[in-house]
Amino acid sequence: MLTLIREARTDRTLQSLESRFRKYDLVICDEMGYVSFDKEGAELLFNMISTRTGDKATIITTNLPFTRWEEIIKDKVLCSALVDRLCHKAFMVNMTGPSYRVKETQNIFKKI
Q1: Residues 88-106: pLDDT tens digits?
Q2: How far is it, in rounded angstroms, from Cα 78 to Cα 20?
Q3: What mean pLDDT do residues 8-13 have?
Q4: Do 14 and 5 meet the contact criterion of CB atoms below 8 Å apart?
Q5: Which H or E element spans position 26?
Q6: What percentage of the chain has pLDDT greater than the value 70?
Q7: Mean pLDDT score of the chain, rounded to an integer?
Q8: Residue 35: its pLDDT value, please?
Q9: CA distance 20 to 109
Q10: Residue 112: CB partners within 8 Å, gap ≥ 6?
């Protein structure tokens, strides 16, 4: 997603992308936290997500608790503001337990 945002900025079509992004009923950002954001990337992501705050649904999946988000978003103020917007009027689901992928792989090996 960040690559798409950066390309739109370079092509001077960022406003158009933001407009489309704002109209989506649901946006899912899967596995947030596996790739760190530089300051510029974090700012672009923040701006994009902020356009949806309080208006449209956004789902974020991550293995990192919010207390560790500063590891991927180095700017503490920006990180705090992003978490604040994501948590506002949010419904959070904390899933714990064994990995579904590991369990599925183990089941495959049992059949062999």
Answers
A1: 889 999 888 888 888 899 9
A2: 24
A3: 94
A4: yes
A5: strand 26-29
A6: 100
A7: 90
A8: 85
A9: 44
A10: none
Is residue 58 helix, strand or coil?
A: strand
Start-to-end CA span in the chain (Å): 39
What the chain holds in terms of domains, given with CATH numbers, is 2-111 (3.40.50.300)
Overall size of the chain counted in residues: 112
The residues pairing with 57 across neighbouring beta strands, listed in sequence order, are: 26
26 CB contacts (<8 Å, ≥6 apart)? 56, 57, 58, 59
Predicted TM-score (pTM) of the model is: 0.78
5-11: list long-range contacts, CB under 8 Å, 24+ apart: 5/44, 5/45, 5/48, 6/41, 6/44, 9/44
